[in-house]
Amino acid sequence: MINNVLQVKKQEKIFKINQVAEILQVHQQTLRNWERHGLIKPLRTGRVRIYSDEDLKLCEKIKTLSGKGVSLRGIKEVISMTNRKAEDSTASLV
């Protein structure tokens, strides 16, 4: 786990939950709720959540969809479909 965190630190900027909450103007509990529902999976070191730039972008997308009235279940489907599309595009390049 520590190696994963070190790898993220070398590659991109990282954020703690309080920083992400402040940037997105949401409560930290909202981010924890999204994690409980499987929408985001930040790295963890003990009790500390570590968010990457990519995690932050995903959180922005979740906030936008939620603000438009999409349920958490619906958001999870959108994320899943987006990931499948990206995987299909990558597979077609090989």
Structure, explained:
The protein is mainly alpha-helical and 94 residues long.
What are the main properties of this structure?
5 helices; 3 strands; 94 residues; 68% helix; Multidrug-efflux Transporter Regulator, Chain: A, Domain 2; mainly alpha
Rg calculated over all Cα atoms: 14 Å
SS field, number of helical segments: 5
Unreliable segments (pLDDT under 50, ≥5 consecutive)?
none
Spatial strand arrangement across the major sheet: 1-3-2
Principal-axes geometry comes out as: globular
CATH architectural arrangement: Orthogonal Bundle
Q: What order do the helices and strands follow?
A: HEHHEEHH
**What is the rounded distance between the termini?**
30 Å
Number of domains: 1
Strand content: 5-15%
Mean pLDDT rating: 87
The CATH class is Mainly Alpha
Major sheet size, sense and barrel closure:
3 strands, antiparallel
Number of E-type strands: 3
Question: Which fold name corresponds to the CATH topology?
Answer: Multidrug-efflux Transporter Regulator, Chain: A, Domain 2
Helix content, binned percent: 55-70%
Structural class of the secondary structure composition? mainly alpha
